[in-house]
Amino acid sequence: MPVEVVSYMMTVEDVKKRLQFQLILQCAPFLKGIKVACITNVDKDVCQELRMVLAGTGIEYRILAVRKGRCLVFFFRRAAFEKYLNRKDIRDFLSLYGYGCAGKETDVDDILQRLSARICCYSKEDIAFPHEIGAFLDYPLEDVKGFIDNGGRNCLITGYWKVYGDPEKAQMIFLAYDKAKTSAVNEFLAGKHIRDIACAAA
After folding, report:
1. How far apart are CA 34 and CA 94, in angstroms?
2. Where are the alpha helices (DSSP H) in the chain?
3. Do 75 and 81 touch, CB atoms closer than 8 A?
4. Which Pfam family, any one of them, does this sequence belong to (predicted)?
5. How many angstroms separate the Cα of 153 from the Cα of each of 13, 26, 158?
6. What's the average model confidence in pLDDT over 31-39?
């Protein structure tokens, strides 16, 4: 994508339009339904615009942390995210970090509250960064575990995340993410609202 396009859109004075473009640029795979969730930093002074920008999309969000004028915002579609969290492998993995119980149905709000608390503890330097967040972001579990076990080193390839398991499969996903971003940005530049770009995948 041309740097000029990104530079122009990020300097547009219309706050809602600029916020839409940021979300489309940084969350396209999620908006297009390829991922169950995504996360990004949003300026604190425009966070209040999120509700209006996302109206009619079926997308929910939670502010996980606020630091230095920036909000760390987690986006998800409740039904899809809840189904994902209740996969046995995901549930069992997250239970190792104090999220719910391995044998019980997972409550989305409780899980996100726990994630928020762990991120806040990290910000206070009470704990190491909660790298289990990769599981929340729909990264392959073997790659999340590999990253944690290796301290972020010794990966096979790097793209949208560090890959420790299946590089060929990961590269296919990276390509799908790139295509989603190109498609979403082109739709936005053609005049579509984020709700029209996202709802097709909801």
Report:
1. 22
2. 3-9, 15-31, 50-53, 78-85, 88-95, 108-123, 133-136, 141-150, 167-189, 194-199
3. no
4. DUF3793
5. 41, 25, 11
6. 97
54 close to 22: Cβ distance less than 8 angstroms: no
Mind listing the pLDDT tens digit for each residue in 36-79? 999 999 999 999 999 999 999 999 999 999 999 999 999 999 99
Q: Whole domain around residue 57: which residue ranges?
A: 3-185
Single-letter residue type at 186: N
Asked if residue 71 belongs to a domain, the reply is yes
Paired with 73 in beta bridges are 40, 63
Q: Kindly state the tokens that stand for 68.
A: 């230095």
Under 8 Å CB-to-CB from 173, ≥6 apart: which residues? 34, 160
Look at residue 62 and tell me if it is in a domain.
yes
* Secondary structure in 3-state letters for 128-159: CCCCCHHHHCCCCHHHHHHHHHHCCCCCCEEC
**pLDDT value at residue 79:** 95
Q: Is residue 197 part of a domain?
A: no
Reported as half-sphere exposure (CB side, CA atoms, 13 A), residue 113 has a value of: 6
pLDDT tens digits for range 88-141: 999 999 999 999 865 667 799 999 999 999 999 988 877 789 999 999 999 999
Which tokens is 25 given?
A: 């640029």
Q: How many CB atoms lie within 10 A of CB 134?
A: 19
Total domains in the fold of the chain: 1
Token pair in block for residue 150:
């290796």
